[in-house]
Amino acid sequence: MRHRYRIIIIDDDPITRMDLVEMLQEQGYNVVADGKNGEEAVSLTQLWDPHLIIMDVKMPVMDGLTATGIIKGQSDASILLLTAYSQKDLVAKAKTKGVCAYLVKPVMEEELLPAVETILLEKQSSLEK
């Protein structure tokens, strides 16, 4: 069942991207693409129509919050933000952009997997209605 959901990973750090992809694929998730900035997130979303995007906030070219605003105008993909910052103003801004959850880096598997599972279960419920 996990393999039916398309997931995209966006982070400017290649090691973080690789770790996230590996964690998810080992659990049977379908990571269809990854990219290094918000601009790539927008184009990969148009290409793959993902169910979930896991995206860093602070990136070159286009940050994750800006990309989220664009993506939410074009797609119903759920967005899980990754941040090195747990500032209240950032969390509030993320909520206004339509982010469904965020995790503070470094992201551990025991935090990532329950968050992904919860988001995709909600996605499944909305698709079945």
Q: Could you provide a short overview of the structure?
A:
The chain is an alpha/beta fold and 129 residues long. It has a single domain (2-124), classed as Rossmann fold (3-Layer(aba) Sandwich), CATH 3.40.50.
Explain what this protein looks like in three dimensions.
This protein is an alpha/beta fold. The protein has one domain: Rossmann fold (3-Layer(aba) Sandwich). Helices cover 49% and strands 20% of the residues. It has five helices and five strands; from the N terminus they run βαβαβαβαβα. α1 links the parallel β1 and β2. α2 runs parallel beside α3. The longest helix has 20 residues. It is globular and about 35 Å long.
Radius of gyration: 13 Å
User: Cα distance, first to last residue?
Assistant: 18 Å
Q: How many distinct domains?
A: 1
Spatial strand order of the main sheet? 2-1-3-4-5
CATH class: Alpha Beta
Shape category: globular
Runs with pLDDT <50, length 5+?
none
Main beta-sheet strand count, sense and barrel state: 5 strands, parallel
| Range of strand content | 15-25%
CATH topology: Rossmann fold
CATH architectural category: 3-Layer(aba) Sandwich
- CATH homolog superfamily: Response regulator
Name the average pLDDT: 89
Task: Determine the structural class based on helices, strands and strand pairing.
Answer: alpha/beta
Number of helices: 5
Strands, total number = 5
Series of secondary-structure elements, N-terminal to C-terminal? EHEHEHEHEH
Question: Percent helix among the residues?
Answer: 40-55%
Modified residues (4-aspartylphosphate): 56
Domain Response regulatory: 6-120
Keywords: Phosphoprotein
Protein name: Response regulator
